[in-house]
Amino acid sequence: MKITINQVKDYVGQEVTIGVWLANKRSSGKIAFLQMRDGTAFMQGVVVKAEVSEEIFTLAKGMTQETSFYVTGVIQEDSRSAFGYEMTVRNIEVISEAHDYPITPKEHGTEFLMDHRHLWLRSNKQHAIMKIRNEIIRASYEFFNQEGFIKVDPPILTGSAPEGTTELFHTKYFDEDAYLSQSGQLYMEAAAMALGKVFSFGPTFRAEKSKTRRHLIEFWMIEPEMAFYTLKDSLEVQEKYVAFLVKSVLDNCAIELDRLGRDTAVLEKMTAPFPRITYTDAITLLKEKGFDDIEWGEDFGAPHETAIADSFEKPVFITHYPKGIKPFYMPEDPENSEVVLCADLIAPEGYGEIIGGSERIHDLDLLLSRVKEFGLDEEAYSWYIDLARYGSVPHSGFGLGLERTVAWISGTEHVRETIPFPRLLNRLYP
Ligand code: 4AD
Ligand code: MG
Description:
Elements: E1 15-27, E2 31-37, E3 42-48, H1 54-62, E4 68-77, E5 85-96, H2 110-115, H3 117-120, H4 124-146, E6 150-151, E7 157-158, E8 170-173, E9 176-180, H5 185-195, E10 197-205, E11 218-227, H6 231-252, H7 254-259, H8 264-268, E12 276-278, H9 279-288, H10 302-309, E13 316-319, E14 332-333, E15 336-340, E16 342-347, E17 352-360, H11 364-373, H12 382-389, E18 395-401, H13 402-410
Parallel strand pairs: 3-5, 6-10, 12-13
Antiparallel strand pairs: 1-2, 1-4, 2-3, 4-5, 7-9, 8-9, 10-11, 11-18, 13-16, 14-15, 16-17, 17-18
Helix pairs in contact: 4-6, 4-13
Bound molecules: 4-amino-1,4-dioxobutan-2-aminium adenosine-5'-monophosphate and magnesium ion.
Residues 162-163, 183, 185, 206, 208, 215-216, 219, 221, 223, 353-357, 397-399, 401, 403-404, 415 line the site of 4-amino-1,4-dioxobutan-2-aminium adenosine-5'-monophosphate.
């Protein structure tokens, strides 16, 4: 019977065959312990000299890291391992021998590992992070489907720049100029006017010269957009969504969280609602904490965000930022024209901003004046302006950065380990 490691619980006491790679190995004169992986999970195989042929025992003892093989044996319960099962090996059939695998169980430097990302993905820590990333994607679809959202796919090649013109990847589109999408938002607004509640999930690109633990050049974003929703309505969706993601990972990735050493007691507290603080109150809070360098009107840096987040146990919404540091599409607060109706969600423990969102301007004259004020090409945006021209309604939306969310929930220090093949400043390989 050919099965995978994640199915072994149904085969206790039975003989099965599994296609695996050798992750690691320990052996003595009488016994060999093979750490085997097959992509679905990791499991130990025990080869006892007295129970197998001389040839199989010699093969097991001499097997090199990342050699692929079919292993046949009997599944046993094993209360000493986190996985809970192991195999008593009876036969080994080598498929392909690996020699001098570059990533050994010893410590390696980050640059070395990044150069070998195509192989590094096989390690048990990277495996756990990728499983958690997958769970967050899966749970996102489940959440938005269950809340009645329609998935809409905005284009990647675009002629407009929702988040400002300085961080765009430029390319030729035959005879025209085009840019890689930095956000699908404007298209999602059009979709919300057609379908009500929509969400997208796709890659976005920022030609930012940032080299921090939170910045990727190419990252994946989930962007919901909702017709007839105010900022307050949107924040309620956001906290429910993020709490759902955390719970899904707790429920479905216990082994992975354990392997990463993530403190799950901290995650258990991430239930809705989340606290809210205005930008202006956040400035006061920072001054109280001794940050004399920041003035009202300036954007927060990572240390500021971390200091604000440290005042709360859960993610915190910072709302009503100054108009001058936010994009053209955000409307002023009717009660204070200096600030706009927006919110960023800041994750705990220094992981920074995981969501940016706002209400969107739906008044035609206001939108036209903003497009001018920001120096945007009215012709390139004329389709977007049409939305305000033909039966516009109040609407809100947000973008959740997948990699920062994975980093936070999995407890991974740097976003470069939360995406299979990170695109970073000065790194396009592998
Ligand atoms: O705050 P941002 O720039 O917002 C937008 O793009 C809006 N148009 C979204 C919307 O309202 N539909 O980006 C949203 C999120 C950030 O909060 C962050 O999590 C992530 O995207 N993000 C990045 N993640 C990794 N590397 C980068 N360079 C990122 N820039 C933004
Ligand atoms: Mg932002």
